[in-house]
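Complex record, two chains
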Amino acid sequence: MVAVSVSQRVTSDDQLARLLQIGIVLEEVVEARAHRHYRQLDAELDEAVETLLADAAEESADHRERLEAIIDGLGVDSVPFDEIESLVDARYGRTRPEDFDDVLYDQLCNEETAYKFYDDLIEAVEGSDAAFSVDREELIATLTTIRDEEAEGVREVTEVMERR
Amino acid sequence: MNTADQYLKTIYVVQDSEDGPASTGSIADALGVSPASANEMIGKLEDRGLAEHEKYKGVTLTDDGIVRARDALQTYCIIERFLANVLAVEDFQAEARELEAVIDDTVAERLDTIIDRQPECPDCFDPESDACACLEIAATPVEPEQQ
C-alpha cells in the first residue's frame, strides 16, 4: 500500500489546477443540467423556474470562464472542454426529471455541492503556505465571489421551492 | 474526505490485507504519519465507536466503522475513476491520494454521476495497485455513449 496524504491543504500549482478543473466540471454539470431542463420546460412554462434555470446556466458559464482564467495563469492546460461537455450531456441525457419539483431539487443539490466544493477549496488554499504562480489574494477573492454566488443560488432555489 | 475517514479507509484495507487486526505500525506506514499520530486518531475512532484497539494485537473496525470505511473507499474510487477516465490523468493514484483530503463526499457523489462505477465497488479495490481492479485506464477521456 502506498502512503496517503492526510493534510487538507493545497500544496502546488498542479494540485490547485486539478482542483479548479474539477470545479469546471461541476459547473459544467450545473450548466448542462440546467440547460437540458430549461429546454424540456418549453411545453409547460413556469416563469420563475425558467428564469432560475436560465440564470443558473449563465452563472455557471461565467464561473467556468473565471476558473479557466486562473488555470491559464498557472500555466497548466485546462480541461478539454468540448469533450467534457459532451460527456456530461450524454450522462445526463439518460435521466429525465419527473416534474418541476424534481428539477428544482436537482438544481438545489448542484448548487449546494458547488458551494461545498469552493468552501473546502478556499479553506485548503488558506491553510497552505505554498507559493502559487497566481496572486494568492486574487485567487481567494475570486473563489470567495464564486462561492458566495453559489450560496445565493441555493437561496434562490429554496425560495422558488417554498413558493410552489 | 476528512482525516477520520482516511484512517478508517486505511484500517479497512490493512485489515483486509493482513487478514486480521491492523497493526498501528502498518496503519502509520500506510498513511505516512508517525505511530504517535496514528495512535491518537485510533483513540478518537475508539471513542466514536468506530474501531476497537487491543494491545499487542491491533485495530479492528466495528460494524459502524466498516460502513464508513467502505463509503470512504467508494469516494476514493470515484476520485480515481474521475481522474483516469474523465480528465485522462496518467498517474491518477498519486493525484487521488493528494486530492482525497480536499474532496468532500457530496462533491464525489456529483462526480459519480458522470463516471461508470461498477456495482461491486468497493470490493473491487486492489491495495497492491492502489486502484479499482475494474478500472480501465484510458489514454483519452471516454467517449460519451450514444443516446
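Note: The CA atoms of residues 28 and 38 of chain B lie 6 Å apart.
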